[in-house]
Amino acid sequence: MKGLSIRWSLADAPEGTEERLAAYVAETSHARFTGMAGLRFKTWRVRPGEWFEGLYLFATDEARAAFQEEFTAEAADVPGSRIVGEPPVLIEAWDVVAVAEGWEGFQATPRG
After folding, report:
1. What is the pTM of this model?
2. CB distance 20 to 46 below 8 Å
3. Domain residue extents for the chain
4. Domain 2-95 has CATH 3.30.2130.30
């Protein structure tokens, strides 16, 4: 499995940015990625005042490469960049060694 991390710095982001990002994920982004061909899953993470990140897990190298190329070309103008006020500080490909699902199972919802 092939991973991709996309991270924005929130160090200089205006107050309320984390809430605007969470609303965008719940109202728009979650639906966009649900059922996306080539994508196994996406997780959105935030450390308030530090960073906001999308973690993607793709089925193949080709799916990851295609998404990464398209995203990188438009990175400065994607919704996350417009909300934060600057482009991502990190776009990084990586490999997954393993994924384990715990007893509590997986919850695929925009807010948990």
Report:
1. 0.91
2. no
3. 2-95
4. no
